[in-house]
Amino acid sequence: MAGKTLYDKLWDAHLVKQRDDGTALIYIDRQLVHEVTSPQAFEGLRIAGRPLWRSDANLATPDHNVPSLKSERDGGVAGIVEDISRIQVQTLDDNCDEFGITEFEINDIRQGIVHVIGPEQGATLPGMTVVCGDSHTATHGALGALAHGIGTSEVEHALATQCLIQKKMKNMLVKVEGELNPGVTPKDVILAVIGEIGTAGGTGHAIEFGGSVFRNMSMEGRMTVCNMAIEGGARIGMVAVDQTTLDYVEGRPFSPKGEDWDKALEYWNTLHSDDDAVFDRVVELDAASIVPQVTWGNSPEMVTGVNGVVPKPEDITDPTKKAATERALEYMGLTGGMSITDIKLDCVFIGSCTNSRIEDLRAAAAVAKGNTVADNVKRVLVVPGSGLVKEMAEKEGLDKIFLEAGMEWREPSCSMCLAMNSDKLGEGEHCASTSNRNFEGRQGFGGRTHLVSPEMAAAAAIAGHFVDVRDVINA
Ligand SMILES: CC(C)[C@H](C(=O)O)[C@@H](O)C(=O)O
Ligand code: SF4
């Protein structure tokens, strides 16, 4: 019998019951909760008069609807200007009080984007099953956890039973070997992978990211990569546990201590695919061939190198692809054949659960240092992923670097990643964004999103158009 993949091991360890029809009951170790997808779940429990199975398995934080402007947060929840946002955040607070769930409320320093605070707190650990009513839950797979997004009815189910009905996915390995060139980041790696496999490439699969590039990557970088597994069609993204994982997890508030730590290590050290494990699909990329990436269209797979050009629809033979490209270019206000570096920017957003961790902010600050935002760039928002990231960045003086460059330094929120709070992109505006989705209207009605790394975003803010960050750091 062939060995097991990491996914097989995590699945088997949480299997409660396997049915002949392929469905299975899986035990859930941790549920993360935010304000958008939880209200109906709590309402369902209230109506049915059901308590939680294990309130301490849940951890909540508001993120999507919280304003990133300090002035709008000074009054706490009551000060949130948008009615829907205020009600959403208040409802989360009330539900967590009623059901006894730990919540990091709006001005708690531990508050932040749910996918940033889980690992930061040690609330997501290797070997866990982690769910959240949010498609970017795959982020937590970076720790060697089995993590995926769920719908609101499943949120209710997990709250009530700590179990979920699932079907096992197929195993896919995305292998990137070699060394990344300077200026090429984890964000570029995952964008290049999506460019290669397409947004449906991982459908029905759990992706493990393997190879020397991921082994040599920091935990923050691995989180960036796993975060966007869903943009490649896979609900699950994972990286095997190694010393980098253990060093990251050790000493965090929710991490095991003393004897429990030793016991955990014994198990965690088994969390990698066996050498003879068989994957249903393997995709390989050469690290050295990856250049800084920029999306030009309205889907994450519409991506190319910063040294490339916007595709010409007339060069595309596949009629569906051709039509999609025409539509995308029209929405984006771009012409086929133009250089990526000729795309001018109105706005830059550095933040989101993809790229708002300390390492991302350090990278952006290193590029911004001593420079000034270009005149044509009206707004640059730098939004740390959590209050703790913000505090750390301020201790290092990163906030000053951003402010001196003419950028805004905000409070933890999903902010302009999606237009669910006051931070919205204007109609027709081009934004270099470190987030993960460039769908039409994602950052605001008629807004035009270009996905990039934090380094590339900062360099674009300074130049006013896209530039190859490799030239900037070599200059
Ligand atoms: C609001 C939430 C349900 C949604 C998600 O599931 O991902 C959001 O976080 C997003 O990034 O689009
Ligand atoms: S930062 Fe963006 S992608 Fe992440 S959870 Fe918030 S809205 Fe979703």
Automatic annotation (TrEMBL):
Task: Give an example GO biological process.
Answer: L-leucine biosynthetic process
What range(s) does the Aconitase/3-isopropylmalate dehydratase large subunit alpha/beta/alpha domain occupy? Answer: 8-464
The record's listing under PROSITE patterns reads: ACONITASE_1, ACONITASE_2
Could you list this entry's UniProt keywords, alphabetically sorted: 4Fe-4S, Amino-acid biosynthesis, Branched-chain amino acid biosynthesis, Iron, Iron-sulfur, Leucine biosynthesis, Lyase, Metal-binding
The superkingdom listed in its UniProt entry is Bacteria
Please state the Enzyme Commission number of this protein: 4.2.1.33
Quote the catalytic activity from the record: (2R,3S)-3-isopropylmalate = (2S)-2-isopropylmalate
Enzyme class, one word?
lyase
Where along the chain is [4Fe-4S] cluster bound? C353, C414, C417
Co-factor requirement: [4Fe-4S] cluster
Look up the coiled coil feature and give its residue ranges: none
Pathways per UniProt: Amino-acid biosynthesis; L-leucine biosynthesis; L-leucine from 3-methyl-2-oxobutanoate: step 2/4
**Which is one GO molecular function term here?**
3-isopropylmalate dehydratase activity
Question: What binding details are noted for the cofactor?
Answer: Binds 1 [4Fe-4S] cluster per subunit.
CDD domains reported in the protein's UniProt record:
IPMI
Gene3D superfamilies hit by this protein: Aconitase, domain 3
Pfam families according to UniProt? Aconitase
Instruction: Sum up the protein's function in the record's words.
Output: Catalyzes the isomerization between 2-isopropylmalate and 3-isopropylmalate, via the formation of 2-isopropylmaleate.
Q: How does it assemble?
A: Heterodimer of LeuC and LeuD.
User: So what family is this one in?
Assistant: Belongs to the aconitase/IPM isomerase family. LeuC type 1 subfamily.
NCBIfam families cross-referenced by the UniProt entry:
leuC, PRK05478.1, PRK12466.1
Name of the protein described by the UniProt record: 3-isopropylmalate dehydratase large subunit
Originating organism: Oceanicoccus sagamiensis
Print the organism lineage. Bacteria, Pseudomonadati, Pseudomonadota, Gammaproteobacteria, Cellvibrionales
User: Gene encoding this polypeptide?
Assistant: leuC
